[in-house]
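Team,

Forwarding the record for the chain on the shared tracking sheet. I've put the sequence and predicted structure together so nobody has to dig through attachments.
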Amino acid sequence: MIDAQPLLSPNRTRDVQVASLGNDTLVLRSRTWDRLKFEVEYARQRGTTANSYLIQATEPALIDPPGESFTDLFLDELQLHEYYQRLSYVILGHVNPNRVATLKRLLALAPYATVVCSKPGAIALQSLLSDQPTSATTAYPEEALELGIAYAGDRTLKLRIVRDGDQLDLGNGHELLFFFVPTPRFPDGLVTFDSSTQVLFTDKLFGAHVCGEAVFDEHWKELQADRRYYFDCIHAAQATQVETALGKLATVKAKLYAPGHGPMVRHSLSRLTLDYQQWCAEQQTQDFSVALLYASAYGNTATMAQAIAQGITQSGATVKAINCEFADPAEIEQAIETCDGFVIGSPTLGGHAPVQIQTALGVVLATAAKTKLAGVFGSYGWSGEAVDMLESKLQDAGYRFGFETLRVKFKPTEAVLKQCETAGSEFIYTLKKTRKSVAPRQFVAETQTDRTGQAVGRVTGSLCVVTTQKAGKNVGLVTSWVSQASFNPPGITVAIAQHGTIEFLATPGEQFVLNILKDGSPLRRHFQRTFLPNEDAFTDLDTELAPNGNLILLEALSWLECTVQNRMECGDHWLVYATVNNGRVLDLSGVTAVNHRKSGNQY
């Protein structure tokens, strides 16, 4: 049952909605129907919610207090619940200045609560409490942080730093498991799983900036555009790290995603997970990639970086965003080597660029080919020497620029952020024009084996997933080695590697379903990952049974119900011939996924 109790303000622009998630767990949704901020991710202007969660266990815990825009409304509502004075823990999925403003007021009401966060979150929290620029290298006593002490003026706060895999028992069956999921934009990212409710508190993952009365996602199809826009704004530039996070979170069986913004994800949990996997995969297959390097003292340069990244992704390119404060030179070098162009941004501190940016610039000058496109941006308080230094060093080295250098004094305005977004689009436009000039042909000594492999690699095949049963268990195998073999009866051949699959489709009369995938489908990546021995690969997928008893993947383009007729040995593969008994196209507008290989010597 949902016990929603909206407390509407007279003009109905802001309120706090309370609902039960079951088993002593409440969500407090601080809502606004107005556009909360002018950053790019709020541009759809559909309002937003800042979701906080109260677990009313033996040791009560509050997860993710909202930003200062909701501080008064939120604390007024929280004080209606008896548990607030007995709060044992305040858990922070990430730390930012707005959230810390509410945290200070909250801890005045619950002075005995311990703040739980990641190690980078603790560093950022100490910095913000002391009104100093956030930096991974800020010189606070690390021993104090490790002992659980943070300084806020003349008082100390109790602190608990958690690492990946740490657990916290709140009592009443609520045992929390923590996942450290750092990304360039949120280097302190922390996701929390409650084993009692099987709720995964995902903070910045799986959210949407949309406000409404619905607590859950019953009408999730109406949220698709908002969810994709949110992903493009927040996560597209850090898709590699998001993929890593998804892999970690897949180790628990969540029944509900509780994000920091938007409705609870219950009815479309598996679909949204697959969407995130697909959207991340799309970022890796774009024709152009850009390395976006930056550091940020007060968040202004980071905000500019986000807007530039948005312009780049909207123009159909991949962005690898790297916060240089939390990256080592090897990561920066690898990004620069593989990108088509790079953009670097810096604040100015004491008339200089931060040490991390100076290090990154050295890596760029030593690594990046002069044919790569460059861009420079940054914010400053007084003089802006760091931006000028970056521009002059890259100009002197002979790099061409994809947009005019962006300099912003203090906090960027909405107009400035739009200019940054346009600069990102302009960068890709220039990159595409540059690509039209064909590079000189390089003659490389090749063996006959290399040339033969390349030629065989030009043979393309439809990407498919074979579903059948083995030892009473549903199994799935990705393959692109499928061909039509006969007209009457209709038949196909499937080539299967011998290693580990000798008993797979080995017997005449054995039944299987061939699921033909559509272009852009995440199913290929899903079945190529390693599953645990007792893990069901089909749990989170939309399926139905074919007449022969094997699974049809409803996300596929089409399916064929097949019967094995015979099998022969072909080198290191078995060639299986099967007749087609039944089949249907599931998506008439879809395009068949095709596997393009550079060489015929491997899959």
